[in-house]
User: Which sequence fits this backbone?
């Protein structure tokens, strides 16, 4: 098994010390091989640390030649969405742009196959440190780590970059007042692991690269929240053609319409049937429950009639009763029991037909939310499929009954 490609991701201000301290702690003290050093900074800070960082890394390599780390660092300068470099964070607009840029950088670092990101919060403005940590929460994988570099107060001086090797001769470093010196060989650097919650798993399984920092934070917050928006089922007037719509309103000011070609579209029928069952307080639908199939089928037929499906379409669902009855007759005739025709019916004509819709609807919800309500979680409105095994497949929706609005209902006062 190949070792991971390790990336040190560090925010930096005007001094390179926090970077070289992190390199020393990982490559020398912990003996981790670093393959890449990425420095995240502003244009103003990059001008101050450029040459100093190169010199400090060269000195670190001279002191510890057996440690594995790059001799040069890749300096990434923060940029606006339009490409202009950010000189410093002085306005709320620059703060917003910095957050988006930091998210892009962390997302890129954490998306590489076989990579392992070690992110250091030390250095740079406090805002940058926070944004790096927050971006790691959104993007980090189980193997990625977050740290803060800590050094004793007496070594928080301009010319200290890392603990010097015992054989180093130029170990004396002036203190801030210039009246005395400290011995850099006796210094220590503590790379403190910062625990953090990886929130990326709460994001829906869809492409989130287009989302801003604020939108991703909103999406995670929405996923963590137990609050649901209203879900309305809109159908054409009985006897008239037209699209059927599932309207989801994450907030009163946000609306997502998922349109279907007609009220007879099976995905629409299945999803709205589950909504109606949830509205009536019924338990999750056991898809392979042979004993209660007739009860479920009768309920589905009643729902199709309420939706206003054409009679020929309703008949297709009614006919499933006859298909199952025929399967049972075949089972009685087949004395040798070569085939369980009832099981074949459930696998082919019932569950086998409907099982594609949860994932299909989930993808459609993700697509519509991405364009109509970016930043909100579509997954909480999707069909929940609890399937430890097929025989116990249970389908339901999590939406509270009071948030579900079905055709023919009178909307409660105060709601759209």
Assistant:
């Amino acid at each position: 098994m190949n070792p991971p490609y390790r990336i040190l991701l560090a925010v930096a201000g005007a001094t390179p010390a926090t970077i070289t301290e992190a390199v020393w702690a990982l490559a020398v003290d912990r003996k981790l091989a670093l393959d890449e050093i990425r420095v995240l900074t502003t244009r103003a800070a990059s001008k101050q640390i450029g040459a100093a960082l190169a010199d400090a890394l060269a000195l670190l390599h001279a002191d510890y030649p057996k440690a594995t780390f790059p001799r040069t660092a890749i300096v990434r300068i923060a940029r606006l969405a339009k490409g202009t470099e950010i000189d410093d964070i002085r306005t709320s607009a620059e703060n917003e742009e910095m957050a988006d840029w930091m998210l892009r950088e962390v997302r890129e670092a954490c998306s590489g196959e076989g990579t392992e990101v070690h992110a250091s919060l030390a250095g740079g403005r406090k805002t940058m440190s926070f944004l790096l940590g927050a971006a790691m929460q959104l993007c980090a994988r189980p193997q990625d780590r977050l740290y803060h570099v800590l050094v004793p107060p007496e070594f928080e001086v301009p010319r200290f970059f890392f603990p010097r090797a015992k054989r180093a001769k130029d170990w004396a470093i002036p203190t801030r007042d210039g009246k005395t010196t400290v011995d850099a060989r006796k210094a220590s650097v503590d790379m403190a692991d910062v625990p953090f919650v990886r929130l990326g798993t709460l994001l829906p399984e869809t492409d989130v690269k287009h989302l801003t920092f604020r939108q991703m934070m909103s999406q995670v917050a929405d996923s963590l929240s137990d609050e649901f928006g209203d879900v309305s089922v809109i159908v054409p007037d009985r006897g008239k053609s037209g699209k059927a719509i599932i309207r989801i309103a994450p907030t009163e000011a946000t609306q997502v319409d998922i349109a279907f070609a007609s009220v007879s579209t099976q995905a629409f029928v299945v999803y709205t049937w589950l909504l109606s069952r949830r509205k009536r307080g019924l338990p999750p639908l056991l898809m392979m429950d042979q004993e209660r199939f007739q009860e479920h089928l009768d309920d589905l037929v009643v729902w199709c009639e309420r939706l206003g499906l054409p009679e020929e379409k309703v008949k297709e669902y009614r006919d499933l009763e006859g298909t199952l009855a025929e399967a049972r007759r075949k089972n009685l005739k087949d004395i040798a029991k070569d085939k369980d025709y009832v099981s074949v019916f459930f696998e082919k004509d019932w569950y086998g037909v409907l099982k594609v819709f949860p994932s299909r609807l989930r993808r459609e919800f993700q697509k519509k939310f991405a364009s109509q309500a970016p930043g909100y979680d579509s997954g909480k409105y999707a069909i929940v499929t609890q399937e430890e095994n097929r025989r116990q497949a249970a389908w339901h929706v999590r939406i509270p009954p009071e948030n579900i609005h079905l055709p023919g209902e009178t909307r409660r006062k105060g709601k759209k």
User: Anything to note?
Assistant: The mean pLDDT is 88. The chain is about 40% helix and 15% strand. Residues 244 and 265 are 9 Å apart (CA to CA).
